Amino acid sequence: MKTVLHKSNTRGHANHGWLNSHHTFSFAGYHDPNRMHFGVLRVLNDDQVAPGQGFGTHPHDNMEIISIPLEGDLEHKDSMGNTTVIKEGDVQVMSAGTGIYHSEYNKNSDKEVKFLQIWVFPKERNVEPRYDQISIREIEKANTFYQVLSPNADDDGVWVHQDAWFHLGKFDAEATDTYTLKKEGNGVYAFILDGEVEINGQKLEKRDGFGLWETDSFDFKSLTNSRVLLMEVPMALPRIGG
């Protein structure tokens, strides 16, 4: 097994007033050649957007973009005609493919919105753009990891054009679980949303990131009440044409 540890306080940071963002991997003005990506996981941004503020209309292409709200309400509009609001308990996915434009704004004028912005390299280029969102209320489970994203449209959660599986878990103190990887050659990047946990003996705290690969499974223990996101992704970047 190989591992990499990214403590919360080592992340890149940018405070633009309306946006306070922490970057696990190189992004915008933050560049670290040792932290460009974890396999096909390219971006993991921990964003806080001021009341009534947000990201104006801007383009994307050939990227799988996942948003997971942690607090508040985020209003989404895109060039495919979608206008919707995502909130804590939802998961949003966009396949940018051949190209889309979108905006994301804090729906509320009296409180911040906090969400994770995640980018994953696709295994196919120039797919037809698409949008989807789900509520995880009906699939969430206590004290175990449950799936919120996969490569399969018929599975639980949203789906992406990549052999990736995301799981969320909300655990009581002393709860344990074992995660078994879905596909050979994949690794898992664990991001601690709240609390303190232990993964294969490594103690992790709020907003720490921990990557594991060249393993079939790993053991998890929640030391306090905790919330954790697991992102299983291929470790090899796709070799795909333009």
Automatic annotation (TrEMBL):
A molecular-function term among this protein's GO annotations: metal ion binding
Keywords linked to the UniProt accession: Iron, Metal-binding
UniProt-annotated binding residues for Fe cation: 58, 60, 102, 104
Cofactor(s), names only, from the UniProt record: Fe cation
Keyword Membrane included in the entry's annotation: no
SUPFAM superfamilies xrefs: RmlC-like cupins
Pfam assignment, any one: Pirin
Domain Quercetin 2,3-dioxygenase C-terminal cupin: 148-233
Gene3D superfamilies found in the cross-reference section: Jelly Rolls (2.60.120.10)
Pirin N-terminal domain: residues covered: 10-120
The record's free-text note on cofactor binding: Binds 1 Fe cation per subunit.
InterPro entries the record matches: Pirin, Pirin_N_dom, Quercetinase_C, RmlC-like_jellyroll, RmlC_Cupin_sf
Family the UniProt entry places it in: Belongs to the pirin family.
Protein name: Pirin N-terminal domain-containing protein
